[in-house]
């Protein structure tokens, strides 16, 4: 019984940590790319450009993002139809 509680607490800690850190990482990534591009322009050092390109979305990632976005639009449209079954939303 004690080990089940410990595993549950560990899973909860991981989940909370991930959901706390993930938004900061994604928002901070845009700022990091801007900083790296600015440093590349100011210093002329190609190292910063290579680092910024490392964090950019790849063509394969863009394709997956497009697929996931279209799935999301279909899902949200279905939810709207369920929540607003009457025309006019009343």
Structural class: mainly alpha
What amount of the residues lies in strands? under 5%
Arithmetic mean pLDDT: 81
| Helical proportion, percent range | over 70%
How many distinct folded domains? 2
Terminal-residue CA separation: 51 Å
Oligomer: single chain
**β-strand number:** 0
What's a concise summary of this model?
Helix content is 84%, strand content 0%. The protein is mostly helical.
Report what the structure shows:
With 90 residues, this protein is an all-alpha fold. It has two domains: 1-56; 57-90. It has three helices and no strands. The chain is flat, with a radius of gyration of 21 Å.
Topology of helices and strands:
Blueprint: H1 2-43, H2 46-54, H3 59-83
Key features of this structure:
single chain, 90 residues, mainly alpha, 3 helices, 84% helix, flat
């Amino acid at each position: 019984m004690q080990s089940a509680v410990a595993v549950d607490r560990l899973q909860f800690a991981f989940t909370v940590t991930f959901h706390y850190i993930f938004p900061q990482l994604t928002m901070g990534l845009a700022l990091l790319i801007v900083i790296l591009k600015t440093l590349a322009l100011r210093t002329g050092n190609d190292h910063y450009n290579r680092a910024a390109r490392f964090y950019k979305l790849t063509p394969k990632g863009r394709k997956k993002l497009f697929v996931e976005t279209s799935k999301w639009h279909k899902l949200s449209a279905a939810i709207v139809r369920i929540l607003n079954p009457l025309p006019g939303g009343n």
